[in-house]
Each structure stands twice: as C-alpha cells, then as structure tokens.
Amino acid sequence: MKKIEAIIKPFKLDDVREALSDVGITGMTVSEVKGFGRQKGHTEIYRGAEYMVDFLPKVKLEIVIADEQVDACVNTIIETAQTGKIGDGKIFIYDVERVIRIRTAEENEEAI
C-alpha cells in the first residue's frame, strides 16, 4: 500500500477529485494548507500599506491506495492539476505499513 500526498492549487480540487473518481479512487482526505516554494509568495496592498504574503493557499490531498493503483493516481493528478505555471504543486509517495478501519477492525486492503 502507498500513501499519496499531493499539494495542488485550490481551484483544481474539484477537477482532481472527479478525475480520481473516474479512475476508481473514491476515498481521500483534503486539508487547506499554506506554503511556498519557488513561487515565493507575492506583495499585496491592505489599507494603503504594502506587505509581503509569504505563504500561499494550497490544498493537500492524502490518499491511501493499493500499489497497483499508484501510477493511475499519480498520472491523473498530474494531468488534471497541471496548469504549466509555477506553483502547480508536488506529489509525494510513501510506503504504508498497516491500515486499520476503526469501526470493523478490518486491516490493510480491506480497510481502504
């Protein structure tokens, strides 16, 4: 099993969710996060004063899937979330040792 963490632009969330559903990935956790990389934030003006916004709003998707679904999941996220501009995001892939569904005590693939 693998855990996919994808950091994407917020306006791409609905498109990515629908595209993942189309390839059979139905469960995910979504968090609103802030961060920056090469994009480095931007300058805004508030009440006449200019200030630097260091952290930009992003969305983090967390998806735990079977090993055979990884390529389809990653490719779907890339194709759907990509705008070609700086700040499109990143995808991280981790090994998952064990999953337990609390309600039924099912484990691993049955618990996903």
From TrEMBL:
It holds the Pfam family P-II. GO terms for cellular component: cytosol. PROSITE patterns: PII_GLNB_CTER, PII_GLNB_DOM, PII_GLNB_UMP. One of its GO terms (molecular function) is enzyme regulator activity. The keyword Protein biosynthesis does not apply. The keyword Nucleotide-binding applies. It comes from the Bacteria. Keywords: Nucleotide-binding, Phosphoprotein, Transcription, Transcription regulation. One of its GO terms (biological process) is regulation of nitrogen utilization. The modification O-UMP-tyrosine is found at residue 51. Homotrimer. NCBIfam families: PRK10858.1. Belongs to the P(II) protein family. This is Nitrogen regulatory protein P-II family.
